[in-house]
Amino acid sequence: ALSAPLLPSAPAALRSLPPPVAASVLHTTRQLHTTQQCLAPLPPLPEKGGEVRYGLIPEEFFQFLYPKTGVTGPYMLGTGLLLYLLSKEIYVVNHETVAAVCILSVIIYGVKKYGSAVAAFADKLNEEKVATALAVKNEAIKSLETAIEEEKKEQWRVEGCSYLFDAKRNNVAMLLETNYRERLLTVYNEVKKRLDYQVAMQNLKRQKEQDHMIQWVEKSVVQSITPQQQKESIAKCILDLKALSKSVQATV
Amino acid sequence: MAGRRAAVKAIDWAAFAERVPPNQRAMFNALKTRSDALSARLAALPEKPPAIDWAHYKAAVAKAGMVDEFQKKFSALKVPEPVDTQTAKIDAQEKEAAKSTAEYVQASKARIAQYEQRLQTLRNMIPFEQMTFEDLHEAFPETKLDKEKYPYWPHRPIADL
Predict the structure, then answer these.
(1) Do A184 and B48 touch (CB under 8 A)?
(2) pLDDT beyond 80 at A230
(3) Is pLDDT of A5 > 70?
(4) Which of A76, A109, A213, B37 has its CA at 20 to 30 Å from residue A102's CA atom?
């Protein structure tokens, strides 16, 4: 925006420039609702108020007088008006004038010194409110997006339910197969056991018969040795031993 | 032997595990351990029992005809296959599950549509600096004060302030 202090201090130098028209501050383009029903929303309110000279006189007045009287026109008008009011005593200078001057000067001093600080503070308050609202909005958007993601993921998850039933059916098939094989195995084992039992029984019987026969043969042989034969065999053994001992004595 | 050997389908346990939500992990693990135990048992058993050496027994066993009788009976024996009672139940369960799954997916899609709508309104919202209170109530319906239910200021229960 064009800064107000700059213009009044250098009117001559600026005569060459085109008349200052900042569209953002001269509200000549603002459209009002002229008919009853208009559904379109209003354009947003402007950021700053209209530009003003000396805090009192709007810029549009100077623009209005510029074509006829140039840059100094409104100043001349103002000075002339002021002198007229003072000299004709239409405006009387009394104690209230002094009071007005003092009060106005204090006010103007205060505004000029602290105006921007107060404005910044108020703006900060507003900013915080807007920032909170924005944060809420962004969080809402983010949570909605995550919710959508989660839902899609759950849908994907649910698609896997066929796996579960395949697994169950597999388990059942495996159990059946295992059972069947176990049965076959049991049959085989039983038959084998019975056959082996028969074979083992036979072997045992044969062995027992053999042992019994051997024992019986031994017993009968022992019994058949009569006492007479025993004496004869003992005498023969003694003669053999004597002969042996004689031959041994000879060699020694 | 047509009913025997119902095909054991190869299951991709890794893909299955991916899709299990965390609150059902325990059940999934139990199922997997059971499946693995069953397949281990199955693998441990031979497919066919070894053949019985009839010639050896014929020579060894003295009693005549016993081995022949055994052999005849053995080859005539048919081991009954175990009856499958559960597959029908599983199929029924699967149908039910498919139905409830379809319902859930429907509901989920409806929810997604709702969310999308809200998202669109939020994204197309005018900036807060240009809003009036009416515009705010349009964009965030929960801020609207219910003047019928609470006719007196502050138009909401004091606890909510």
Answers:
(1) yes
(2) yes
(3) no
(4) A76
Q: Return mean pLDDT, chain A.
A: 84
pTM score, whole prediction: 0.61
Task: Give the pLDDT confidence of A61-110 residue by residue, as tens digits.
Answer: 999 999 999 999 999 999 999 999 999 999 999 999 999 999 999 999 99
Cα separation, B55 vs A9, whole angstroms: 134
Question: Three-class SS of residue A57?
Answer: strand
Question: ipTM of this model?
Answer: 0.74
Q: Which of residues 117-156 of A touch B (CB under 8 A)?
A: 130, 133-134, 137, 140-141, 144-145, 147-148, 151-152, 154-156
Determine the average pLDDT of the residues in B22-49: 87
Report the alpha-carbon distance of residue A85 to residue B108 in Å, rounded: 81
Interface test with A, best of B36, B57, B99 (most A CBs within 10 A): B57
Residues near A139 by Cβ (< 8 Å), separated by ≥ 6?
A: none
Burial of A202 (0-12, 13-18, 19+ CB in 10 A): middle
Q: Which residues of A11-33 are buried (b: 16+ CB within 10 A; e: fewer)?
A: eeeeeeeeebeeeebbeeeeeee
- The residue behind tokens 């074509």 is A67
